[in-house]
Amino acid sequence: MPHPMKYAVVESERRFLVRSLPGPVERTSEIVDRYLEGTRLRLREATEPDGSVVRKLGHKVRLTDGPQRVACTSVYLDDAEWALLSTLPARVLRKRRHHVRLDGVHVAVDELPDGTLLAEVDGGDEPVVAVPAGLDVVREVTLDEEWTGAALAGH
Fold first, then answer.
1. What is the distance between the alpha carbons of residues 35 and 86, in angstroms, rounded to a whole number?
2. From CA 17, how far away is CA 136, in angstroms rounded?
3. Does 115 have pLDDT greater than 90?
4. Closest Cα partner for 146 from 116, 108, 121?
5. How far apart are CA 14 and CA 103, in angstroms?
6. Of 40, 43, 45, 44, which Cα lies nearest the Cα of 4?
7. Which residues lie closer than 8 Å to 75 by C-beta, 6 or more apart?
8. At 98, is the secondary structure helix, strand, or coil?
9. pLDDT tens-digit profile of 77-88?
């Protein structure tokens, strides 16, 4: 039997609550995440500044070999697939994602509806060691389940 993570991409990420949006912002996306009830699946609709829309079904699993490592699998959806799957019961999280570059590192800063700013630094397959200068960190929330997208969608 093939390994269950055969098609997953492993990412090493850290998340931080931040006081302010670092700049300059390269681009901003509008994101609607639908966390499907009773599953670890997420439907994401991302609208880019040029009006293009990307829709995908995602699955994220924390790995046991390191608390910051996550296996991510995505399937891109056409309009018919999206229309069908988006009828499933889900908890919804809307956010604005600002993309910035600090110290040569890409940082995604999610602005939640209440104004809270949640920054994510993704090191790809390498651990994220340093916090980029210019990121005004309140505290790290990488291991705090209350700050996962699924938990935020439940609020």
1. 10
2. 9
3. yes
4. 116
5. 16
6. 40
7. 56, 57, 58
8. strand
9. 999 999 999 999
In whole numbers, what is the pLDDT of the chain averaged over residues?
A: 89
- The residue-averaged pLDDT of 10-23 equals 89
CATH class in words for 9-153: mainly beta
- Give the pLDDT of residue 66: 60
Closest CA to 117 of 15, 17, 13: 17
Query: What's the rounded Cα separation, in Å, for the pair 8 and 24?
Result: 32
* pTM, to two decimals: 0.88
Query: CA 7, CA 10: separation in Å to the nearest integer?
Result: 10
Is the predicted pLDDT of residue 132 greater than 60, yes or no? yes
Task: Show me where the domains of the chain are located.
Answer: 9-153
Say which residues have a Cβ less than 8 Å from residue 44's Cβ, sequence separation at least 6: 31, 32, 33, 34, 54, 55, 56, 58
CA dist 143 → 7, 67, 73, 85, 147 (Å)? 24, 7, 20, 30, 8
Residue 116 has pLDDT above 60, yes or no: yes
